[in-house]
Structures are given as C-alpha cells and as structure tokens.
Amino acid sequence: MNLRAKLLIVFAALALAPLAVVCLLQYRAGSGAAESLLRARAVERAARVARDVERVLSLQESRLLELTRDDAVRRYALEHGPRPEAQPAGGTAALPAAPAASISEPFEAYARPNLEYIQAVTLLDANRQPIFRLNRSADGKGFDEQTTDLVSGQARHDEHVWDARTAAVLRSPLSEEPHGAALRLTAPVFGPGAAEGAAAPAGAVVAEVRLGEVLREAGETSDASPASPAPRSVVALDNTNDTVVYHTNGALTHQSASGAMPYFKEIAARMKAGGAGVGLYDTDEGETQLAAFQPVDGLNLSVAASEDYAAALRPARRAALLGGGVALLAALAAAALLSFIAARETRGIGLVARSASAVAAGDLEQRIEVSHSGETRELAENFNAMTERLRELIAREAESRQFASFMRISAMVSHDLKNAIAGLSMLVSNMEKQFHREEFRADAIDSLREATEKLKRTVARLSEPAKSLSGEYRLAARPTDLVPVIRRVLATNAEPTRPLNDIEARLPDKLVATVEPERVENVVENLVINALEAMGAKGGRLTVEAGKLEGDYVFFSVADTGVGMTEQFIKTKLYRPFSTTKNKGIGLGLFTCREVVEAHGGRLEVESSPGAGTRFRVVLPSRLFQSGERRERPVKATVASE
User: Fold this and answer.
1) Using CA of residue 63, residue 67, residue 68, residue 69, what is the dihedral sign?
2) Are residues 437 and 460 in the same domain?
3) pLDDT single digits (tens) 606-616
C-alpha cells in the first residue's frame, strides 16, 4: 500500500467518517426539532378548535337563557299553553292568546346575531308542542316566522327539561340533518312571576345549532395562525357512531370514519375512546400526516388537527443534505489536494528509494536532483550527503582493511613462528642434556629439519597474502593417518614437560581422515600448547584421545586440568580474534584452529568449567564427500581398540 492510499484511508477515517456522523446528528437534531414544533403546532390547533367550539356553544347557551327570561316569551308560553275548560253559562270567558308579534322581536334578537350558527329556534308549550318557530330562510340571509302548521317533529328536544326547576341549558345528542350535523340546546321557560325551583316549566325553547358551521369556522380560525404552506385538515368525529361530523374535505363529511378513511382507523379508535394525544398516519396518496386530537367538553365529540409531516420535515432534510453536500465537496477538494501533495512527495520518495537501491547494489556515484522544496528535497540532500560520506568511509575502510589484513597475516605468521620457536627452544634445552646420545642427535636432526620446513612454509605464506587470508586451508587434502601426526606433536611439545605434567595418550593404531596434514598438525600443536600453558607451572594431566564416529567421521580430543573457562567467555570471546586470557599471546590460535577445521568440513567443540579444566574435540571427515551428498551428524564417539 503506497503513501497516497494510506493518507486517503487516514483522511477517510479521521475526517470523512466524523463529518458523516456530524451531518447525521445534525439531520436528526433538525428533524427532531421540526417534529417537536410540528407536534406542538398540531396540539395547539386541536386545542384551539375545541376551545372555539366550546366558546360558541357557551355563548349560544348564555343567549338562549336570556331569551327564556324575556317577559314576552314567558307570557306567550303561558298564554298559549294548556287552557282551563270553558266556564258554564254566566261564567267568565277565557282571555285571547297573545299575538305572535309580541315574541318575534326577542327571538329575532337572539337568532340574527348567530345567523351562521342557528338553523331554527322553537318555543314549546307545557304540552311539549311547538307554538312558535323561527326557520332559517332558504337564501340563508334571515329567518321566517311560523305559528301555524307546526308539527311535532319540529319539537325534538331533551325531555329532561320538564323536570327542571332552575334555568339551565341541556344538550341533546348530535344528529344528522339535511344541512349537516346539528346540536339541539333546550332551556326551560318559567311563567311570569314564577320563582325558580317553585313551579314546573311553562314551556321550553329549543335552538337547533348548525354544529358543522361551528366546526368549519373553528377550523378556519385555527389555520389562520400560524400560517403554514403545508396542507392541513381538521376532523371532528361523533364518538357514539364513528361518524365524521366535519372534515376539511367536505366529501368525507357525514361518512363513517373507518369506511371513508381506513388509514385514519387507529387514530379514530383513540378519539372514539375519548382520549387525547398525537399520532402518525399515511393517506391514500402516500403522504405522512401527524394528527393531534382531543375531546370537546360537554359533547360526545372529538376533534383532530392534522399537519403534513413529510412537508414539515422537508426543510430540515434539505438543510441537512445541503450541509452534507457542501461538507462532502469540501472533503473531496481536501482529499484531491492531499492526494496531489502525496503523489508529489511519493514521486520524490520513489526517486530516493531507487537511488538507495542503486547504492545498495554498489553504485556509489548516485546523486538525487529534486527541484521542488519540502521534506523530499531535504531527504534528497541528506541522501546525497550520506552517499558522499559513504564513499569517503568506504575509501577509508579499504585502506583500513588493507592495513588490518597485513596486521592479521602478520599476527598469524607470528603465532606460527611462536609455536615453531617454542618447539626449537625445547629441543635446544634437551640437547644440552641429551646431545651425547646418538639416537637423540638423530631425532634432533629430524626435528630441526621439520622446524626448518615449517619456517619455510610460514615465510611462503607471507609471499601469498591473498591466498593466506582467503581461508583456503585445504591446499592438498588427502587421506591421512592422524595417529603419527598426534604422536609427533606430543613428542615435540608435551613429552619434554615431564615429570611436571602427566601425559596420557589413548590412541588407536590407525585413524584416517581426509585432511591437509600440515594444517591439522598445526591444530593439534595449538591445542596441546594451549593445554600445557593452561596448566602452567603447577603442572597437571594432559589427556589426548582419538577414535571413530558414526557417519564417516573421526575425532581427536585434547583435555587438561588447568584453570578452565566460563560459559560466558566461551560464547562471546573464545573464538574471537585477538581475544585471550593469557598474559602473553595475541589470541589467534583458536580462531585459526576453527577456520582450519571448518575448511576441512569438520567442527571444533569445547567443554570447560572454571577450576576443572578444558576439553577440546575436533571432528573431521574420514573421506571426501561429494557435492550434494547428505552427511549424517555424528553423535557419539567410539574409541578404537588396540
């Protein structure tokens, strides 16, 4: 994944995702606020409709009570009510009834200010029969009086009025009339001078109120404020029979709510139960509406005011979408700018990476030219400075390596010379004591010849430093019997130390390994001399063993009872060049031994502990292995029998 992709992922995680969350929260907050406002407005409209209906009816009731207290109305009801039987001859004749004109004025005074609400006003006598009636004219601009041809159907009223002893208005159940929903208000009329509570009513006045008109005006008033461009409606239900008493859509009036408005069924059920609250419903057109409903006091009637829910939330949605769109455009612009910057920097970084690969491949002449400024330019300048410094360091390293190589080969040659001189020193020391013996002189001559050849070979290594430093010690590997080699080293380096040291050699008659004899002899010599030096002036036991191993391998080991070594020293310093625990020496002996053994396909093992001595074991192949041939790892040593 390149830098540009990573930056875009980080940008999306740390910028776009929080931005989307903020937009969502903003939308939810805006929608919640709009919904809360819509609910409050619907509840207020429903409450206003209910209050207006109650106010109009209360006003009608108070005016109706004033009408029943009018003296002309009282006298008319009393005089046109049931009259006593005719007196016998000579008796007083009954008084004529008062003319209808006497009550026309108070009835007109009651009905005309309420022209839009009143359909008819009827005066009943004590026999519960109509005796006077004002009917709304056909053109709706006035009222017509009627005193004759009155029928009992025009006298529908609340029968409880005849039991009344005080002036009060009774409301009859809602009814459906040709003009719409009607509510009849009935009030008792007491005779002139009759005290309330003392006599039965002399008559009653029944006002037929056009409830549909009351609801229409109340609904229009509720829509007047606050203004809303969204469609709104008012519904009034008769709770006794699920009938739509009023609907803003007149086509739905006088119908069953469950039949005409099935989508309104759930809310209609709650209204019919006399409850109040808020609910959502979907119209046939698929529009979501929010309705607030409540009952009207004193009537078996509930009203509901609806608001267009989707239209009310549309501004909040548009605002959220607009804000989200602007934020998205800004984010995309930022992402494009970030991508451009990342691509620019990536090109510079890629140039640096390619140059670094070239330097790693050995081309130290690489130089980066970056024209634009920024972090990449600084990186390129630092890279150029680094390569220039690297060239200087490599040049110095080459010089140092040449000098170190010379020092190393000098140290190795010095080490071999030291061993040769040690052998010659022992020989000279013994010559002072044993020179008179002829066999000793013969052995001494052979030893001097071998020492001379070894010195020649050492000097020859100085003339071929490249070959000497390459680690190529297998100059002439051939099957070699290691027993004579080991015995020769012991005779030259160990035997002269008797009786200070106890020398024990457990060797087979023959032990063949495929090696270069001279190099392996140097290894044996190094290990024996190191063992003798480890035991020092106190002396000790030197044990040399040899034998065969499983898998075409042989071994020889050199053990001493000297000071020993710690495990930490073995791990970190034993085979490190120029690292030694001796007071004398340069620390190249064991390093050279391991190089020689591994060059022959073998390995050098060590076991040691402080104060208990040290045992070195050299494992070598007994034959040459072909290329690709599998070698079994030797596990257990087996000493050959005599």
Assistant:
1) positive
2) yes
3) 999 998 899 99
